[in-house]
Design a protein that fits this description.
Elements (H helix, E strand, L loop, with lengths): L3 E6 L5 E7 L4 E7 L2 H5 L6 H22 L9 E7 L3 H18 L3 E5 H7 L18 E6 L4 E8 L2 E7 L5 H12 L5 H9 L24 H12 L3 H33 L4 E5 L6 H11 L4 E3 L3 H4 L3 H12 L21 E2 L1 H4 L2
Parallel strand pairs: 1-4, 4-5, 6-9, 8-11, 9-10
Antiparallel strand pairs: 1-2, 2-3, 6-7, 7-8
Helix pairs in contact: 2-3, 4-11, 5-6, 5-7, 5-8, 6-8, 8-9
């Protein structure tokens, strides 16, 4: 029985390390952000991300052990994100954990980053714990800069993709729109902040596929519509209208996500919904989710520290797998994409 793992998440630009118990308790988590390093470029630069992971990771591991008066002797095993993500970033985490595993003769496991997001609702700490009656199965929306998909989560390790975006992820659309209006980086958080003092009804942006009886989504048309509108504005007008533009654009994205969530819940005959991933930190999406909870849905959104890229969710997925007698060997490598066995896919139900 594995009781405590040290986990590492380096799939994109945040370096995160956590200590997680088998019941989902997060003993501690430390994270180094790279926002300042990437902000000048308006997006994540892979080479810079991987270099900064290599600088930050070992000091973070040292910090979390010392902070909690632990040594490697107290750790039963290791978990690390090895897919999907930026290859250079993943390599840093995977190679570090392989080295620790070999030198300490302790097992390790590679974890799919998206599985971590799907299990994040079950994490708990001194300030957060999941709803007592919440359990499988449920509909999950994993929405971030790189992914926007709906899942039918039947049980641990039983995940089916039932809908996804045909083009841009929602977070990617936010990032590109933020560049158009000069909202800053990271784009999603900047748009959210500007939208708080804007009129969400000022501009009528399209909501693609919301009237179609399937679970597929699209955000490229919305992005193109915004680009056409903004390209006709003067620089002064963009500055004046930025908050209204952000509020209207955000409303369109959130409307699509919520409508598809409701349709998925109807198709799969459940009222249990999870929203996770970096975009689930969006305040308007959380407001709309709260409205759903007032209409009979059980909606679970992990706290922001477990929604954005974090090692705690990787640790929980990893320790569950270790306790099912799964472990990795030195052949484990990083992968930019999920593996075929990670998720079942059922888009037939999505399009009926």
């Amino acid at each position: 029985m594995y009781n405590l793992v040290l986990s590492v998440e380096t799939s994109c630009d945040d370096t995160s390390v956590a200590l997680v118990k088998s019941d989902g308790t997060v003993v501690d988590q430390v994270t180094a952000s790279q926002d300042l390093q990437h902000s000048v470029f308006g997006g994540v630069v892979p080479e810079i991300a991987s270099r900064n992971h290599s600088i930050a990771l070992l000091p973070l591991i040292d910090e979390i052990l010392k902070k909690n008066n632990l040594t490697f002797e107290n750790i039963d095993g290791f978990a690390v994100t090895n897919r999907p993500g930026l290859m250079g970033s993943l390599i840093v985490g995977v190679m570090t954990i392989k080295a620790l595993s070999q030198s300490l003769n302790k097992p390790f496991i590679g974890v799919n980053h998206l599985e971590g997001h799907l299990l994040a609702p079950f994490l708990k700490d001194e300030k957060y714990k999941p709803q007592q009656d919440f359990d499988y199965p449920y509909i999950a929306l994993a929405v971030s800069g790189g992914h926007t998909s709906l899942y039918w989560v039947e049980n641990f390790s039983e995940y089916t993709i039932i809908g996804t975006t045909k083009d841009d992820a929602a977070g990617e659309a936010f990032d590109k729109f933020a560049k158009m209006v000069g909202a800053g980086f990271p784009g999603g958080a900047s748009v959210d902040q500007c939208a708080k003092s804007g009129d969400k009804n000022k501009y009528d942006f399209p909501r693609s596929m919301v009237h179609e009886n399937h679970l597929m989504m699209s955000f490229s048309g919305l992005k193109s519509s915004a680009h056409r509108l903004i390209s006709k504005m003067s620089p002064e007008e963009i500055v004046t209208e930025k908050n209204n533009l952000c509020a209207s654009f955000q409303e369109a994205v959130v409307d699509v996500l919520i409508l598809k969530l409701k349709l998925a819940a109807k198709k799969y005959q459940t009222k249990k919904i999870v929203i996770t991933g970096g975009v689930s930190a969006n305040s308007r999406l959380r407001e709309k989710a709260h409205e759903l909870s007032q209409k009979g849905y059980t909606v679970v959104i992990p706290p922001i520290r477990y929604c954005t890229d974090n090692a705690a969710m990787i640790g929980y997925a990893g320790i569950l797998r270790l306790n099912q007698n799964h472990s990795a060997n030195l052949n484990l490598g990083p992968s930019a994409a999920s593996l075929p066995e990670d998720f079942k896919i059922n888009l037939d139900q999505a399009t009926t």
